[in-house]
Amino acid sequence: MWYYAAFVLFLLGQSTETFGRTFEIDYNYNCFRKDGKAFRYISGSIHYSRVPRCYWKDRLLKMKMAGLDALYTYVPWNFHEPKPGVYEFSGNHDIEAFLQLANEIGLLVILRAGPYICAEWDMGGLPAWLLAKKSIVLRSSDPDYLQAVDTWMNVFLPKMKPLLYQNGGPIITIQVENEFGSYFTCDYNYLRHLTKLFRQNLGDEVVLFTTDGSGLPYVRCGTIEGLYTTVDFGPGTNVTAAFEVQRYSEPNGPLINSEFYTGWLDHWGEPHSVVATERIVKTLTEILDHGANVNMYMFIGGTNFGYWNGKKKLFIFKRVTDYFLFCHVSVFKNTKSTILYNWVQWAGKTPDILYVWLSSKVKFMLFSFSSSASYKKIPEGPIPPTTPKFAYGEISMEKVKTVLEALDALVSFGPIKNIYPLTFDDMKQNFGFVLYRTILPRDYRNLTTLATLFNGVRDRAYVTVNGVFQGILERDREMSINITGTNGAHLDLLVESMGRVNFGRYNNDFKGLLTNLTLNGEILSNWTMYPLDIDGAITRGFLNEASTLKASNCASPTFYKGSFLIPSGIPDLPQDTFIKFPGWTKGQIWINGFNLGRYWPARGPQITLYVPMNILTASSLNNVTVLELENSPCETAKCFVEFVDKPILSKTKDFITEMSLFSKG
Ligand SMILES: *[C@@H]1O[C@H](CO)[C@@H](O)[C@H](O)[C@H]1NC(C)=O
Ligand SMILES: *[C@@H]1O[C@H](CO)[C@@H](O)[C@H](O)[C@H]1NC(C)=O
Ligand SMILES: *[C@@H]1O[C@H](CO)[C@@H](O)[C@H](O)[C@H]1NC(C)=O
Ligand SMILES: *[C@@H]1O[C@H](CO)[C@@H](O)[C@H](O)[C@H]1NC(C)=O
Ligand SMILES: *[C@@H]1O[C@H](CO)[C@@H](O)[C@H](O)[C@H]1NC(C)=O
Ligand SMILES: *[C@@H]1O[C@H](CO)[C@@H](O)[C@H](O)[C@H]1NC(C)=O
């Protein structure tokens, strides 16, 4: 009896929860209708793949309390299907948990499901293993591409179905593809195929949409009937003209800017970009005055941990490790005027301020719109408090082994031998590093030119002869260097992938040595290639037992280690921190085996990397592993890294970006 009653209550609970939940487009009144009522959203972007899971709740609460109705998030396919048929949906990959959390907190979700997302993410979210077929045409009706898309979506989309708004979940609309009109294929059959695939898995009710740059050519190739067209544009854009582009494709229905750029991207070797406050305010106000829906891109930027950053479309520089550089959301307890003052003074240098600024700005706007029918309620209560940061100070580091000395422990499989060089993709190496080795066929006592044909080094090669550093070849920058060596010596190139192009025609971004190398004009042959699994080796603790090296005075890629204890007697430690590399050049860093990302203070603009507290432990030594690819300070000066409590995101003077000049995804 009790069971029966509980079951009925359960059913009642179910039905009251989902009964009458509808979300649709009203073409007569140019708006959305949620449960029958006119609705428009002010939303913000956050990517779960760029935020440690332990912070999801904190960040979502902050978005809620900033007055947002909804969040936009991308789904990176390569984050979930690392190998064909191998799926990851646990831990930081647990998108269902993320969406459920949003639901509990009361945020609606606009899901940008891919398959391609751009997002300044490695290969725009497409798995690198697609390149196993060399001639594959990504984002087209290429049958091998479609086959992989279908397999993935038939796994992924059914997980999303119960999370649709109609079914009691938070997802109100789903994006298919992304800025497809900026891609060269203009393949409507592909869009038709995707539409069918999404409909089969999700049903007919959910609103499916596309996003494109606010120019007619983009919209023409980017969308088809059955997918609702939205546009994206940043501050300084003529809002009326931009929405006229949307109206070209959608004469009726809600106006939507799916990406309003509250910041801009940083690239290695370029100044830190900052967007002028007044420009954001002015354009955002205009968008809201048009009665449009808007998504702030990004609201919470997050971090490209590990190797996940993408690469610029013109393939010159690589994305930096932090994303939109205001990720580490926390709050200063200042008055509003002080905040604005700080914002102008600091011009985006501290993530905290932008968040506070955006939060108060959004709240302010919601207040001014609160008299209209669709905006009545702003969450009560203060903006959630700062996530504290702690300066653990200097950690002394010691040299352990060069990559060549550690080679046996680092090789994941192989080595592979071939007369001419193979790509990473030939060897099924999706990220990281491969060591390419050949034997010098004769003496080269004078400086002799080692060159890449047709700019074929993807992306950087650290060259040594018998372990002695010779120079660096770099895509688009350094096509040749001079070396010396003797007959029979090992010529080694440690080749680094710096992230795959995430936008445009060159999205099929193969890595490694794509073309032959010549020495003194002769093609080098008989290569031995060692695909490296450095992350695995670090997890296995390969450096733990290694004794430290005597300084050998040759700069070649080398591992360093250090350790530290979280101080006792201070409450609430461990806390987040930022790590700085005084005197170091370029490399990769792991803490307790977690791959934090790339550092490159020699090129900038980003100087510190974000270290989330969840990777630190108060109960044992914390281990820091650094792979310095060029020069460390350790031969000549004090050898340390330093934990500080403020980020340094700008090496030099900030650069005010004219964002209306760009369109991005
Ligand atoms: C903005 O675009 C509209 C429509 O194309 C045009 O009428 C208007 O003159 C433009 N405004 C400015 C300031 O260029
Ligand atoms: C090396 O350089 C020296 C001095 O320029 C020159 O005399 C010699 O012929 C060169 N040797 C070879 C093998 O090219
Ligand atoms: C290599 O040496 C040649 C001859 O000395 C010189 O012309 C060339 O500029 C050098 N190349 C580089 C990259 O240093
Ligand atoms: C390297 O050169 C050889 C001989 O010319 C050629 O057959 C081969 O295709 C080249 N390999 C690459 C990757 O370019
Ligand atoms: C490459 O290896 C083959 C087979 O071992 C050998 O015959 C050839 O001489 C080698 N080529 C060079 C340039 O060392
Ligand atoms: C750090 O390394 C030591 C061995 O050198 C190990 O005992 C310890 O557990 C490691 N700490 C963490 C947090 O993995």
Characterize the structure shown.
- The chain is an alpha/beta fold and 665 residues long.
- The protein folds into 3 domains: 305 residues, TIM Barrel (Alpha-Beta Barrel); 117 residues, Galactose-binding domain-like (Jelly Rolls, Sandwich), CATH 2.60.120.260; 120 residues, Galactose-binding domain-like (Jelly Rolls, Sandwich).
- The protein is 22% helix and 25% strand.
- Helix 5 runs parallel beside helix 6.
- It binds 2-acetamido-2-deoxy-beta-D-glucopyranose (6 copies).
- One 2-acetamido-2-deoxy-beta-D-glucopyranose (NAG) binds next to strand 32.
Features:
Jelly Rolls; globular; disordered C terminus; TIM Barrel; 3 domains; 665 residues; alpha/beta; eight-stranded parallel barrel; 13 helices
